[in-house]
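Appendix B. Raw example, untouched.
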Amino acid sequence: QRGGWAAEELRDYIVFVKGNGLAQGACPRALEVLSEYYQRMRRIAGGGATVRTLESLMRMSQAHARLLMHDRVEISDAVAVCALFDAALQGHTVESETVLG
């Protein structure tokens, strides 16, 4: 182990995170970020972005918030997930334009 976590420590942390839900849901601004990102995806990708895509964005934001031990989904969680999603979609858009702009 060089500066990182041992496998057992990481496993314990993941179990801890999974057992702790978010007490407060999401802040309104985080929801706005996710909604705007999803709407922009719909404009760029058309039918490729479905309601399931929005649900995935929300679940990923919740998971990110739990990993960072937030009480709710914060704007930073939503932005991190949008950036991750955009990176995952590189090369899969109709045009070279990315969703984040």
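End of appendix B.
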